[in-house]
């Protein structure tokens, strides 16, 4: 069987990774009632108000077009999503009609049989052709589409323009230059991290792995196998782990940092650079770095190249158990359409998944361009298998990064252990 390397196009936030167990029995079938309440689950936010305002506007528009229809929204804490979704998978009567979930959860959620196949609905949707093909791939499992891509999350390199001017530095053009620039900042400004990175920040590491020619895993038929033991993968992971050193971001302070904590350090004026998403801009704007930073794509190993980025993202899906299938699909298409994707960008900074909306925003907001350029250059995804949720939950990759950063294991040994654990999960 021909081997396919994992280059599944665009990823988002991954922003979230699911932990719900797969069920063997598909959820009970629903119906197509034209009135009543459409039940919607959306993720809660630290600052929900702007998101909620956009959603309320969409609901008002939807109700105006559908007599006798209500829309009830339940806000789901991201941290508690696993139990919530697991309950819905096991008890279809408790399931919503529409739900927001992360694209890294697609395979594990689809395996339960609880999600509706939206392939035909998206194909016939008037805005369906505008969904970026690479983004659409992240909503698929087994060749079927299980969600409408609502937003995507691309990561790029944030840097302090005032600090770079003071130290006479230029934005790095390669990953090697990024490392040297980080060392220079730390040497001349020892109170700062050269770049704030974290041992638990998997999605900051992946561009290094991919830029060096490595892959997370390869698929042969319906089987996945870890590819972390390749020389390219070792070089890429080691290049990232080497940023967690005393002369850049000391491991005793940085080995346990998550992505959120890494960007918080930058926003708070404690670092010269950081790897952050388009979704982090509001946090940076609210911090000490406001007005003193710029963003560029994460560079590749050669000048002029852009490192492939992981892009998480969230989808709007429909449960098979819904008694209002048409209404559920129509609501996802309204909330996920161009009008409300743009409103969600204004509200939350979420990067749209519709090409026309992306281009419109990039033309009016220069800070969007590095993320769009990264997406255009090519992005990749995590293994499209339910096993990925288990691998992610077990912190297989963060553990390897931390072991290398702290000197507990060399790259070969750390990644050999990670590969063994991944292959066990793949089965």
Secondary structure layout:
Blueprint: E1 3-5, E2 36-43, H1 49-65, E3 69-76, H2 81-90, E4 98-102, H3 106-110, H4 119-124, H5 133-137, E5 140-141, E6 144-145, E7 148-160, H6 161-167, H7 175-188, H8 202-211, E8 217-220, E9 223-226, H9 231-241, H10 251-254, H11 259-267, E10 273-277, H12 281-285, E11 293-296, E12 309-318, H13 325-335, H14 338-348, H15 355-364, H16 369-377, E13 379-380, H17 387-393, H18 396-406, H19 411-426
Parallel strand pairs: 2-3, 2-4, 12-13
Antiparallel strand pairs: 1-8, 4-12, 5-6, 7-10, 7-11, 7-12, 8-9
Concise overview:
The chain has 427 residues and is an alpha+beta fold. It has helices at residues 49-65, 81-90, 106-110, 119-124, 133-137, 161-167, 175-188, 202-211, 231-241, 251-254, 259-267, 281-285, 325-335, 338-348, 355-364, 369-377, 387-393, 396-406, 411-426, and strands at residues 3-5, 36-43, 69-76, 98-102, 140-141, 144-145, 148-160, 217-220, 223-226, 273-277, 293-296, 309-318, 379-380. Helix 8 (202-211) packs across helix 9.
